[in-house]
Amino acid sequence: MQTDMTAGKPMKMVLGFTIPVFLGNVFQQLYSMADAVIVGKFVGTGGLAAVGATGTINFLIIGFVLGITAGFAVLTSQKFGAGRMNEMRKTVGNAAILSAVITIVLTAVSMLGMHWLLVFMNTPEDIFDGAYGYIMIICGGIFTQVLYNLVASILRALGNSRTPLYFLILAAGLNIVLDLVFIIVFHFGAPGAAWATVISQGVSGVLCLIYIRKCVPELRMEREDWRFDPGIAGKQIRVGIPMGLQYSITAIGTMMVQSSLNMLGSGAVAAFTAGSKIDNVFTQAFVALGTTMSTYNAQNIGARQLERVRKGFRSADVIGCIYAVAVGFILFFAGKYFAYLFISDNAETVIPMVDIYLQCEGMFMIPLYVVNCYRNGFQGMGYGLLPMLSGVAELIGRGVMAVVAAHEKSYRMACMASPFAWIVATALLFVLYFYVMKDMKKKLCL
C-alpha cells in the first residue's frame, strides 16, 4: 500500500512510516547478529573475531550500496509526491540501470583488493584466513544487497514501508536456519555464515521484486521506461553518489578504529564486535527515522510544501530524543548482559570490555539521532554534497580518536571514537539546517 505523505498530521505520518522501517532494520541486523551468535557459540571467540574483523569492511561496501540505492530513489519519491507517474517510472528504470553498472564495478574492485585491505588493517594472523573467507563471499554476493535495497528503497519512495519488512522477516528466519545448517551440520565455520547472509538477502530481494510486478500498478513498467535518460541519471547520480560516499566516509573512519583495535588482539576485536552488534540493534530506530525523513521530505518538496518539512523535523525530534534517552539508559546499565548471547569462552575478559563499549555509546544517543535524521532529511530535499560534509566531520573525529587509541593502545579511546564523531557532525548539521531551509525557500520561491 502506497502512502501520500504530503497530507495528514506530520507526527502521525513520521511515526507510522518509521515503525515498519525500524522493524525491518532490526531484522536486517539479525542477519549479522545471527552470524555473530552462532559463530561465537559454535566456532568460538576466534570465529567471532574473524567475522568482527571484517565488520567495518562489510559496512564500507554495504553502506555504499544502502546510500546509493536510497539516493537513486529520492527522485522517484519527489516525482510521486508531485503526481508525475510517467516520469516516476522512468526514474525507476534509470535507477535499475545505474545499480547494475555499480554492482559489477563494486564486486570486481572489492574482491581484487580484499587481501591487501585485510593486511593493511593489521588483521591478526590467527583469524586472517577466517576473515578473508567470510568477506570474500559477502563481496561475491553484493548483487543480492543491491537488489533488495534498490527495490525496498523504491517501495519506500512511494510511502510503502511495510512490504519490505514482511519479506525481510521471512529472510531473517531463513538466515538463522541456514546459519545453523552451514555451521553446525556442514562445519563451514565463519564462511558458512556469509553464505547464509547472501542467500537470505537474495531471497528477500526477489520477493520484493515479485511483489512490485504483481501488486504495484504505479510501477508497471513499459519498454520506454527502461531507456537510459542522461538527464534523469545525472540527477540521480548527484544525490546517490554523495549518499553512498557518505556511508563510505563513515566506514573509512570506522576502519581506522578497527585497525587500532586489531593492534590490541583478538579479544578486544571480539568484545568490540559483540558490543557493536548489540548497539546496532537498539539504534536502528535512528536509521529508520533518517529513512522516514528522506522519503517524507522528498514527497513534500515535490509538492512544494516546505512548512510540512519543518513540522516533520520537529515531530522527528520529539520521537528521536525520547527514544535516545530510553535506549541510552538501557545500554549504559544493562547492555552487557546481551553479550552472553555471543560469548562462549573468555567471558571474564570479554564481557567487561563489552560493558565499556556500551557505556561509551549509551551516553551519546541524542547526537547519533541528529546525525541520522537531519543528514538523511537534507538528502531527501535534494541536497547531496552538503550532508556529506557531516560525513567528513565524522571521519575527522573518528580519525583523531583512532590515532590517539593506537598511540596509547587504549581500548576505551577506541570506544569513544564514534561518540566523538557524532558530536562533531551534529554541530555542523545544526548550522546546515538553517542554511538548507533558507536556500530551499528561495528555490521554491515561497
Layout of secondary structure:
Elements: H1 10-42, H2 45-53, H3 55-82, H4 85-120, H5 125-140, H6 142-157, H7 162-185, H8 190-215, H9 230-262, H10 266-282, H11 284-302, H12 306-334, H13 347-362, H14 365-380, H15 385-408, H16 411-415, H17 417-443
Helix pairs in contact: 1-2, 1-7, 1-8, 1-10, 1-11, 1-12, 2-5, 2-10, 3-4, 3-6, 3-9, 3-11, 4-5, 4-6, 4-9, 5-8, 6-8, 7-8, 9-15, 10-13, 11-12, 11-14, 12-13, 12-14, 14-15, 14-17, 15-17
At a glance:
With about 450 residues, the protein is mainly alpha-helical. The protein has helices at about 10-40, 45-55, 55-80, 85-120, 125-140, 140-155, 160-185, 190-215, 230-260, 265-280, 285-300, 305-335, 345-360, 365-380, 385-410, 410-415, 415-445. The two termini are about 30 Å apart.
Would you write up a description of this structure?
It is found in: Cell membrane. This is MATE family efflux transporter. The chain crosses the membrane at residues 46-75, 96-119, 131-151, 163-186, 192-212, 318-343, 349-371, 383-405, 411-436. Keywords: Cell membrane, Membrane, Transmembrane, Transmembrane helix, Transport. InterPro entries: MATE_fam, MdtK-like, Membrane_Transporter-Flippase. The protein is mostly helical and 446 residues long. It has one domain (26-443). It has helices at 10-42, 45-53, 55-82, 85-120, 125-140, 142-157, 162-185, 190-215, 230-262, 266-282, 284-302, 306-334, 347-362, 365-380, 385-408, 411-415, 417-443. The mean pLDDT is 88.
